[in-house]
Amino acid sequence: MRHPRVLTIAGSDPSGGAGLQADLKVFHAFRCYGMAAVTALTAQNTVGVEGVHGVPAEFLERQIAVLVDDCPPLATKTGMLFSAAAAHVVARWAERGALGVLVVDPVMVATSGDALVEPDAVAAIRSHLLPCAAVITPNLPEAGVLLGRAVTDADHARAAAEDLAREYGAVAVVKGGDAAGTGPIQDVVAHPGEAAASRTHVRVPLPATHGTGCTLSAAIAACLARGLDEACAIDLATDFVVAGLQSAFAVGHGARPVNHFAASGVDGAA
């Protein structure tokens, strides 16, 4: 397929820095055909989230059903699922093999600190969706929520990645950007049955960033749709995020989103 079909099942970010808007930009950058099923509408900008309106699970089901019937994806990434009902809907389609290779970004809290899921959604994601995933991409706080313990530094991340990979049979990428300090960032990657390995990359000195997790998981999904293996997909996706942060520019008065023009050599700063 010249332009592999990739689906994002996620919430909408009207500012364009995160959520399905960011995912679609990433798919385009990797020369994939992007599709989207909306789980929630948000009222947010680069400063914060002012409101969340969940899409009824029945309508989410209809969105996915018509896409799968007409243009099934080779890979899918999930982001903000908002409700337990939404997580159950996605899990049912994933269990049928209808979503292609699945990348789960267990989005729970925005960069601004605003909650993005209902409390019971976490249990549904943990019990029903993660077992369907090929790759899981939590940050440190999300890994802690999934495992029910504190995950705050590189040692914690290594153990968390190995535990998640073993429990769910997926490649676990525990992102280290939330760790304290000013030195390089250490992401930890664990394949099922293998010791975790650290991938160190530069920490870009920005006051705040927006959409890094969405961008990483979307890039991994796009690479998997293009036939790359998980290790190569994670490496390319990480490089894409770092390049996007190194050339990030202000859009509003708050956090700077990842620069999705970076892959094309256009810095977008003008």
Describe this entry's structure for a reader:
- The protein has 270 residues and is α/β, with parallel strands linked by helices.
- The chain has a single domain (5-264), classed as UDP-N-acetylmuramoyl-L-alanine:D-glutamate ligase, CATH 3.40.1190.20.
- It contains 8 helices and 11 strands.
- The protein has helices at 19-29, 57-70, 84-95, 119-129, 140-147, 154-168, 212-225, 230-246; strands spanning 5-12, 33-44, 49-54, 75-78, 101-104, 135-136, 171-174, 185-190, 197-201, 209-210, 256-257.
- The strands form 2 sheets. A 9-stranded mixed β-sheet has the order 3-2-1-4-5-6-7-8-9, with helices on both faces.
- The radius of gyration is 17 Å and the shape is globular.
Residue share in β-strands: 15-25%
Q: What would CATH call the architecture? A: 3-Layer(aba) Sandwich
Any idea how many domains?
Answer: 1
CATH homology-level superfamily: Ribokinase
Structural class: alpha/beta
| Backbone CA Rg | 17 Å
Stretches with pLDDT under 50, minimum 5 residues: 266-270
N-to-C span: 35 Å
Give, in spatial order, the strands making up the sheet with the most strands.
3-2-1-4-5-6-7-8-9
Order of helices and strands: EHEEHEHEHEHHEEEEHHE
Question: Which topology does CATH recognise?
Answer: UDP-N-acetylmuramoyl-L-alanine:D-glutamate ligase
Helix amount, in percent? 25-40%
Shape: globular
Mean pLDDT: 92
- CATH top level class name: Alpha Beta
How many DSSP helices?
Answer: 8
Number of strands: 11
Largest sheet: 9 strands, mixed
